[in-house]
Amino acid sequence: MGKELENDEKMDKASKNELENDEKMDKASKNELENDEKMDKASKNELENDEKMDKASKNELENDEKMDKASKIELENDDKMDKASKIELENDDKMDKASKKHIEKFVEDRKMLHYSAISFLLLTNSKEEKGEIKIRRNNAKGTAYKW
User: Fold this and answer.
1) Are 98 and 110 in contact, with CB atoms under 8 Å apart?
2) Domain locations along the chain
3) Torsion-angle region of 130 (φ positive above 0: left; ψ -120 to 50: alpha; else: beta)
4) Distance between CA atoms of 35 and 42, rounded to whole angstroms?
5) What does the pLDDT look like over 45-62, one tens digit per residue?
6) 56 to 40, 43, 45, 67: CA distances (angstroms)
7) H helices present in 2-136, as ranges
8) Alpha-carbon distance 96 to 52, whole Å?
9) Which of 103, 126, 122 lies closest to 144 in space, CA to CA?
10) Is-contact 123 95, C-beta < 8 A?
């Protein structure tokens, strides 16, 4: 009976060890499952971050395209402004030339009027009066007088 008891105790001890090992295996499996869940969650977070980065990159590309388009429009507007300025300068030059011609014609007309008046006075006065004829030019009106 002593051996049977000893064997029963050994069997109980072996069963107890087996139960402990099973519990340890269950605990290890549970830890492995938790680690797998954490890894899955980390992978999911990484995927979400990658999607956010892709979206941010896409937005940045769209903004770059908009900036390029705005720069292109600005350059076109600058070209148009340069062209308009050039046309304005050409028009100013034409106006200056026209004004100069107008002034030259006005001066020439005034000279002709002055010479005509002098000639008329010389002709009329020399026949009718004796003596020296003096002619003065009034710059404000551009007319000739005798006195």
Assistant:
1) no
2) 2-104
3) beta
4) 10
5) 999 999 999 999 999 999
6) 24, 20, 16, 16
7) 2-128
8) 64
9) 122
10) no
When mean pLDDT is compared across 7-11, 61-65, 123-127, the lowest value belongs to 123-127
Q: Would you give the distance in Å from CA 121 to the centre of its chain?
A: 72
State how far the alpha carbon of 134 is from the alpha carbons of 83, 112, 119, 120, 143, in Å.
58, 19, 12, 13, 14
User: Which residues, in sequence order, are bridge partners of residue 138?
Assistant: 143
**DSSP structure class, residue 78:** H
The tokens 């020399």 sit on which residue? 126
* Whole-number Å distance between alpha carbons of 121 and 147: 11
Structure tokens belonging to residue 83? 């062209």
> In which residue are the tokens 């590309």 written?
61
Token output for 10? 């050994």
Q: Please, which residues have CB within 8 angstroms of residue 125's CB and are 6 or more apart in sequence?
A: 133, 146
